[in-house]
Every structure is written in structure tokens, then in C-alpha cells.
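Ticket #273: bound-state structure for magnesium ion.
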Amino acid sequence: MEANRPPQKTAGGATGPEEEARKAAAAAARAANRLPELRLVVLGWRWPGKSLTGNTIIGREEFRLERAAEFCVKRQTEVLGRQVTVVDTPGWFSAQDTPPSYKEELVRGASLCSPGPHAFLLVIPVGMFSEVDRTRIEEHVSLFGEHVWKHTVVVFCWAEVLRTISIERYIRREGKDLQWVLEKCKRRYFVINNNIFGEHPQVERLLEKVEKMVADEKGYYSPGEVEKEKKPVDENQNPARDVRELGARPKQNSGLNLSKAMEVEPLSSESVN
Ligand SMILES: Nc1nc2c(ncn2[C@@H]2O[C@H](COP(=O)(O)OP(=O)(O)OP(=O)(O)O)[C@@H](O)[C@H]2O)c(=O)[nH]1
Ligand SMILES: [Mg+2]
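RESOLUTION: The complex was predicted; output attached.
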């Protein structure tokens, strides 16, 4: 048991002073990476918890948990000594084509945090992860250009459903599709508990993870680069028809019957920013 270990020893056999020195070095590295301002864009399919994740980061109920938001919403506030901007984006549809107008709005999210987001937080609810989920993620995240992956962190929510299973075991168990996404993000992931609101070290840890990514990748995401890579969205589709037909269906194939609690509501017309 952890509690029964001699206090001066660590699992690796390091002595107390060595462990202290390691901790001090880690704290110094975190302090060196620290940024006064952080700009974050929250991405994901419909209804996994993007807005609630935004609220958890900001520490207030800034984003409405309405269903099927059509527009990006931007909020700014001070969090743990940093000026933090969070842009919440419309989720993509899991099993149907996303209308071009939604894709354009999604891409606009990055331009709302000029000069560019420090991180894209790709929100994935813990549960069954399919090949379709992977291809939909690839399709929509890549709208920001291939270089977006260098600036993306997977944020797992709904992690309480794992109970005693570790996140590492869950990732192994889900197989190649989820692992493909994690490899694209250089295995940067974070487990957020959206049931904890207010004072909790998880938000600081997430911000530090983003700061480390910015340090490792030597900067933030620059939207300008996407122009060189960008493929035009399919203009042969009729956005009005798509919106009408798509409705606001929640994701049907997320595991653990999470979609059971979700009903269909009409598309919201609220627009902020
Ligand atoms: N138990 C639990 N509930 C969560 C978690 N994250 C989100 N939820 C709930 O899931 C539902 C959807 O959350 P939202 O944050 O509105 O999801 P969204 O991705 O913004 O949804 P859209 O904007 O419609 O695409 C809400 O009822 C949240 O309270 C989580 O980690 N645990
Ligand atoms: Mg939302």
C-alpha cells in the first residue's frame, strides 16, 4: 500500500532529496512554460459535453447547455492568473453529413481567438468509440488543416462511467480507432471531471498541459497556414435543405447508452459573437 511505504523512498528508489529536486525541476519547467494568456477552441461531435467542458475551464456557467448550437460562442475571463478565452463550436453530426454552413462556422471558431488558438480541445466522451467516430473526427478536425493536430489535446469527459477502469486501459481496450486519434495528437490527452465545479486542481493541470504543448510545438496554431492546405467545402449541397433534414439529433452510437437521455430539439437560432 502507498501509505505503508517508508516516507523517504519513492517507487523508483529515489531518496527524499532526489525526489524533492525532481519535483522542484518539474515545478520550474511548469513556471517557465506559463503563459499570461491562453486561447482555447473546444471541438467535438454533438452533445458529448463541449459546452460543459468550457464551463468547467472558465469556472462559471458561461456556455448554455442547449442542444445543437449552430454558432460559435466566445467567452473570456481570468482563470488562475491567466487571461483565458474559450470558443465553443457547433458539434458535427455523427452519422450524417455536416452541412457546409456548419463547417464554415466551425472553422470560424479559430479566427475568433486571434492571432490563433493555443489549443484545440477535442472533447470525446468515454464510451464505445467506432471507426465512424474516427473518420468523422478526421474529416472535421482536418478542416483546420493538417497542422491542427500539433495543437490538439483530446479531452475525455464522462470518465466517471469508467468506475474502476483506468483511462489507459480504456484506451487500450477501445482499439485502433481511438488510438489513431491519440497518435495524431501525439498522445496528448486529459481526463476532465465535469461534475466538479469551482476550485479543483484539474483546471490548472489542463492549462499546464496546454502550456507544455505550446512550448513543445514552439507556438500556437496559426490559421493562416490553413489557406495553403484547405480543401473547399462541398458546394453542391444545399445548406437550407441540410439543416432541415438533419435536425439536431444527438450522437446515436456513443457507448454506454449515453444517448438515451437525449431528445431531439429544434435547432437553436441564438448567435453569440
Ligand atoms: N455525467 C456527466 N455529464 C456530462 C459530462 N459532460 C457533459 N455532460 C452532460 O452532457 C450533456 C451535454 O453537454 P453539453 O456540454 O451541452 O454538450 P455539447 O457538446 O456542448 O452539446 P451540443 O452543443 O449540443 O453539441 C449535458 O446534460 C451535460 O450536463 C460529464 O463529463 N459527465
Ligand atoms: Mg454545446
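RESOLUTION NOTES: Residues 50-51, 69, 88 surround magnesium ion (ligand 2) (CB under 6 Å).
TICKET STATUS: resolved
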